[in-house]
Amino acid sequence: MSETIGFTIDGRPVRARPGQTILEAADAAGIYIPRLCAHRELHPFGACRVCTVKVNGRPQAACTMPAAEGMVVESNTPELTEHRRRLIEMLFVEGNHYCMFCEKSGNCELQALAYRFGITAPRYPYLFPNRDVDASHPDVLLDRNRCVLCARCVRASQQLDGKNVFQFVGRGANKTLWVNAERELADTNLDVRDRAVDVCPVGCILRKRQGYTIPIGRRRYDHEPIGSDIERAGAARGA
Amino acid sequence: MTDIGHAVRQICAVYHNDASRLMDIIEAVQSRYGCVSSEAMNLIAQALGIPRVEVHSTVSFYSFLSNRPKGRVIIRLCSDPIDEMFGMLPVANTFEETLGVHVGETTADGAITLEWTPCIGMSDQAPAALINDVVVTYLSTDKAREIVAELRRSGDPRKLVHRLGDGHNAHPLVRAMVHNNIRRKGPVVLADLPPGAALRKALAMSPIEVIRDIKTSRLRGRGGAGFPTGMKWEFTRQAEGARKFVICNADEGEPGTFKDRVILTEYADLMFEGMTIAGYAIGAKEGILYLRGEYAYLRPLLEHILQVRRDAGLLGRDICGKRGFEFDIRIQLGAGAYVCGEETSLLSSCEGRRGDPKNRPPFPAQKGYLGCPTSVNNVETFCCVARILDRGPGWFAEIGSKGSPGTKLFSVSGDCAAPGVYEYPFGITLAELLRDVGAEDVQAVQVGGPSGQLVGPDSFGRRLEYDDLATGGSIMIFNSSRDLVHIVRKFLEFFADESCGYCTPCRVGNVLLLRKIEEILHDRGSPDDLHYLEELSATVKFASRCGLGQTSPNTVLSLLRNFPEVLKRRLKPPAGEFLATFDIRAALADTERLVGRSSVMYAP
Ligand SMILES: Cc1cc2nc3c(=O)[nH]c(=O)nc-3n(C[C@H](O)[C@H](O)[C@H](O)COP(=O)(O)O)c2cc1C
Ligand code: SF4
Ligand code: SF4
Ligand code: SF4
Ligand code: FES
């Protein structure tokens, strides 16, 4: 085996391959660090900040920070949990999330994070932004009301599909997901089989005519908290 | 195809169809057609072979760029609190009345657009505005009327400049009414040096020796973060890469600072000399001056000085006769984005993209501009470098205080007799500075701009240096008549507008902070809000991805810490079980209007 890096997460020794991020090494060790924008198949982006950990006492995004020898990483502490909770609540009030009418409900990573963190209602006022829905594409719906600006679709289109269907326009609170066309999604080369369509963590990019094929109550996070797969794999290996 | 196709292709060709020069291409298209239309975006994308949405993304990021036509003349009023203190609101009203539009609109004939813009670097001559590239200062309601009349008559903002400012402001290539307001010169930055003098001394040494001198001088960056310059150069020198870059950060976007403006106007030679020395030290052949869009009026002068230096053998090949040493500098113009002063956003912007900061590591010294090792330094830092090479590191290290050698330029504005630029050795107290600038009845001083600290009289004995009251140079003075909560609101508005929107805490958190401060200003604050503001600020600072979000809550936090009574005075204790922050009348207003009668239960 090639050389590995040794460090700790919440006191547990963890090994990483050179170049691996803290998040990747934690996953491999069966330690779940909450995250939203990170995705196994995509280059790290570092936008949601839900994965923020302390590295030798300083905040860092676990998904972008390479592991290094001797690092002391804190993740599951009351302080960090509280920051994460606030970030998740910010994402809820920033968009228009009506889970009871959302086809993603039960499979949604944002909603699942809220469940895992025991969030019943955000402490912040809803911002009720005015956002566009793009239903032009024959097979794919884009409902920006639920977009969390995680750039998974942007990256998947570039890195997995070899296309450039999505990108952001505007800045600050006006930052918006846009498509590579003068007007709308139908004018792009997006195909319903593109990986970009699969990776959205929330109910912003949806396949049309697939509503409720799995009934509510039998969906992924209806059964177990988000991150359970990582923790289970760790437990199975006797971590 | 219309001639726009031909013109855009021509512009792209000037930049060798190089997508990394997208900023220049967009700026050229916009200055020709007034905007970057949908058609122009398609044409640019085709010529450069990049997705159209990338062009759209860049255009939409910068407040000086637009995809919709605006007026042939754009009046941008400076929105910072200092301008407001000196009468900007009546000036803005006069513009609105005489033009017949609101701020944010364009006159019906398409001639003039009126907008707000954050600090344009003229707080020492407020209220001020940018009219296209032309700076107008010391505005009044009368002047606003004259300006509109002249623009209606000639449509030419250059005709608005009647009296020229001092020094190079009167240079034929500048012709600006801006004043330098240099109030105190020191030995390091605001002092003359014959072009080439420091560079020749540097070239007589090896690059390693130059870096050693900078380290010995203990020079720290003047752009805010205070990183040791010698160390940054050493990292850049040691990093692997065939191409390396020196970038001078002249984005000067922190509200209340304008000292780089004065250096760019009067001491650009010193700055370019420092950049050239940096190129020699780190092994870079290429330099970039990133000039904020607001200072576009200085560009012709700066290009001229670069050409003079080329002609004198101070730039180009075999500089000063040193065989094999080659270095040149180009100017990259920004387009209205504060975050682009952050060094990694600045790199994104130089690469032709939206000004999103980059993930670190890698740091710019390892992988910077176009992935090459890059040292980014402030305008003033480069001036210090040239002086250190001329006078020696020992001389420099003797000036100032122990942890902060050298001098610092302060941009002083607000309630004082003599706003302007002051060069002092590090370590003077705030009280000494306030005395010298003629500030009386001072309630508070914002040290280091909105991202710094708001301090009161109990802090005036503190020292202006890295280890105490650190500042990139902005000093805004507020007397006892000023409303500090309102000022904090203005600063939060600034951060919310200027956030790049990449990460959650800064994009959402600053809007939430602003909302809460606005509630308090509207007398709907409750005592719980203090805790709310503390918590929210803590998360924005802790979790934000770059320095903008990591410092934006400072304005709220220093109000809470240093002026608790100012905030508390505006909070209402809850009335029984009811929330003071909930205004039933406002909540019902829309419904009442729709149904056409007022509520029976909550009738006023
Ligand atoms: C939001 C933000 C804006 C900044 N604006 C500037 C600026 O206008 N000029 C500047 O020199 N540094 C600015 N900085 C600091 C730069 O990131 C960087 O530290 C500096 O240019 C390095 O130069 P120095 O080492 O010479 O100080 C800014 C930082 C942040 C986070
Ligand atoms: S995207 Fe997720 S959080 Fe948003 S409404 Fe749908 S289920 Fe709820
Ligand atoms: S559409 Fe979905 S994947 Fe794309 S940025 Fe928005 S939330 Fe992320
Ligand atoms: S803190 Fe985040 S959102 Fe704010 S400017 Fe930096 S990267 Fe952009
Ligand atoms: S998962 Fe790391 S920032 Fe989003």
How are the elements arranged and paired?
The complex is a heterodimer of chains A (239) and B (604).
Chain A: E1 5-9, E2 12-16, H1 22-28, E3 52-55, E4 58-61, E5 72-74, H2 78-94, H3 109-116, E6 133-134, E7 140-143, H4 152-159, E8 166-169, E9 176-179, H5 195-198, E10 205-207, H6 220-223, H7 228-236
Chain B: H1 3-14, H2 22-33, H3 38-48, H4 52-61, E1 73-78, H5 81-85, H6 88-99, E2 112-117, E3 129-131, E4 134-136, H7 141-154, E5 182-184, H8 197-203, H9 207-217, H10 229-238, E6 245-250, H11 259-266, H12 268-282, E7 286-291, H13 299-311, E8 328-333, H14 343-350, E9 374-378, H15 379-391, H16 393-398, E10 407-414, E11 420-425, H17 430-436, E12 442-447, E13 453-455, E14 474-479, H18 484-498, H19 504-521, H20 528-543, H21 547-551, H22 554-562, H23 564-568, H24 584-595
Parallel strand pairs in B: 1-2, 5-11, 6-7, 6-9, 7-8, 10-14
Antiparallel strand pairs in B: 1-3, 3-4, 10-11, 12-13, 12-14
Helix pairs in contact in B: 1-3, 3-4, 6-7, 8-12, 8-15, 9-10, 9-12, 12-15, 18-19, 19-20, 20-22
The complex binds flavin mononucleotide, iron/sulfur cluster (3 copies) and FE2/S2 (inorganic) cluster.
Residues 221-225, 227, 249, 251-254, 339, 341-343, 376-378, 381, 546-548 of chain B line the site of flavin mononucleotide.
Question: What keyword list fits this structure?
Answer:
heterodimer, A: 239 residues, alpha+beta, Ubiquitin-like (UB roll), Alpha-Beta Plaits, 2 domains, five-stranded mixed sheet, 7 helices, 24% helix, globular, B: alpha/beta, Glutaredoxin, Rossmann fold, 4 domains, 14 strands, 42% helix, binds flavin mononucleotide, binds iron/sulfur cluster
Characterize the structure shown.
The complex is a heterodimer of chains A (239) and B (604). Chain A is α+β, with helices and mostly antiparallel strands and 239 residues long. Chain A folds into two domains: 5-76, Ubiquitin-like (UB roll); 85-207, 2-Layer Sandwich (Alpha-Beta Plaits). Chain A is 24% helix and 16% strand. Chain A has helices spanning 22-28, 78-94, 109-116, 152-159, 195-198, 220-223, 228-236; strands spanning 5-9, 12-16, 52-55, 58-61, 72-74, 133-134, 140-143, 166-169, 176-179, 205-207. The longest helix of chain A is centred in the middle third of the chain and has 17 residues, at 78-94. The mean pLDDT of chain A is 96. Chain B folds into four domains: 3-61, no CATH class; 73-162, Glutaredoxin, CATH 3.40.30; 183-397, 3-Layer(aba) Sandwich (Rossmann fold), CATH 3.40.50; 407-482, Ubiquitin-like (UB roll) (Roll). Chain B has a six-stranded mixed beta sheet with strand order 5-11-10-14-12-13. In chain B, strands 2-1-3-4 form a four-stranded mixed beta sheet, covered by helices on one side. In chain B, helix 13 links the parallel strand 7 (286-291) and strand 8. The A-B interface holds A 44-50, 52, 59, 61, 64-66, 83, 86-87, 90-91, 93-94, 123-125, 127, 148-149, 164, 166-175, 178-182 and B 38, 42, 51-54, 56-57, 60-61, 337, 339, 354-355, 359, 361, 496-505, 507-512, 515, 532, 535-536, 538-539, 542-545. The complex binds flavin mononucleotide, iron/sulfur cluster (SF4) (3 copies) and FE2/S2 (inorganic) cluster.
